[in-house]
Design goal:
Helix content: 25-40%
Structural class: alpha+beta
Distance between the termini: 30 Å
Radius of gyration: 18 Å
Number of strands: 10
Oligomer: single chain
Order of helices and strands: HHEEHHHHHHEEHEEEHEEE
Strand content: 15-25%
Shape: globular
Mean pLDDT: 89
Number of helices: 10
Strand order of the largest sheet: 5-6-7
Length: 290
């Protein structure tokens, strides 16, 4: 597996370009404040008990006016309430929701982040240069409904899984890798942050890290560890994971890249022509105060 361990140089360059263009990213300590608290413990497979190593919420403060005033976040937040979280329960998509999906794609396509991602994918022969066709491609990847649970109807899509989160048979949490959703769910007392995950004490994250491995419970279920970008814009996540999705045909793609100061493993699972799930795993950050 040595090949996948080496940061893919070209991908690293593109992702750092996107990082640099992400002007809608929230600044730690200014636009939001997090409180990491304790290091989360081990949770047995299938168990829904986790010792709470964090008495307070993860997010102490988020500038909500800023969230609502930036178009991509505002449209993103509109999408979060459109899904039935339980897999096996068919999604009903209203025409209004279809419109919201399209408005979100329209909004992110106006950002430099998505323009850069689009240009790269066109250069790589993975996406049509026509903007309308590219938007359709994005729609298929993120919003096309599919069966995640064989017994049910069309119960899921990439966007729902990655950004909103789902529950499987009422037994486990799937997805929910987005900080805005995490913050809003925490604010409504649906999410209880249990602590950060780190391999050892040298690996301790700090409050201004833009990538974290978290443990939390949601709707009574525990997620032993979930990787999440913190503070980045929705367009950054869509751009990054769309590129990884389109640059590979594997069922599961994992690339190790260095973005800004973070050594990350970016994981994407495909579900046919759509994203099954995608998330970052923080391997290390080089701004440790040693």
């Amino acid at each position: 597996m040595a090949r996948s361990q080496q940061a893919s140089q070209e991908l690293t360059e593109v992702l750092n370009q996107l990082w640099g263009l992400d002007t809608n990213r929230f600044r730690p300590g200014t636009d939001y404040t997090i409180s990491l608290q304790g290091r989360a413990g081990y949770v047995a497979q299938g168990s829904n008990y986790a010792r709470d190593r964090a008495k307070a919420p993860l997010f102490s403060y988020v500038n909500e006016d800023k969230l609502k005033s930036i178009e991509t976040y505002a449209h993103f937040i509109n999408l979060l309430d459109n899904y039935e979280t339980s897999t096996g329960v068919s999604e009903t998509v209203t025409s209004e929701e279809l419109q919201e999906n399209k408005l979100f794609i329209d909004a992110i396509m106006e950002t430099d982040v998505m323009k850069c991602a689009h240009q790269y994918l066109v250069r790589k022969g993975q996406s049509p240069s026509d903007r309308a066709q590219f938007k359709r491609q994005l729609y298929d990847i993120w919003f096309r409904l599919y069966h995640r649970d064989r017994s049910g109807g069309e119960d899921s899509c990439g966007f729902e899984h990655v950004f909103v989160g789902e529950t499987k048979y009422g037994k486990e949490i799937m997805g929910l890798h987005n900080w805005v959703q995490f913050y809003l769910q925490e604010k409504h007392d649906h999410v209880d942050y249990k602590g950060y995950k780190a391999r050892d004490n040298k690996d301790t994250p700090d409050e201004d890290d833009h990538v974290l491995n978290l443990q939390f419970s949601w709707k009574g279920l525990v997620k032993p560890v979930g990787g999440s970008f913190i503070g980045v814009s929705p367009e950054f996540e869509v751009a990054l994971f769309t590129i990884i999705f389109l640059m590979s045909t594997e069922k599961m793609t994992s690339v190790v890249v260095k973005v800004d100061e973070y050594m990350l493993e970016l994981v994407v699972y495909r579900h046919g022509r759509s994203i099954g799930t995608s998330f970052p795993k923080l391997l290390s950050s080089n701004n440790r105060d040693l």
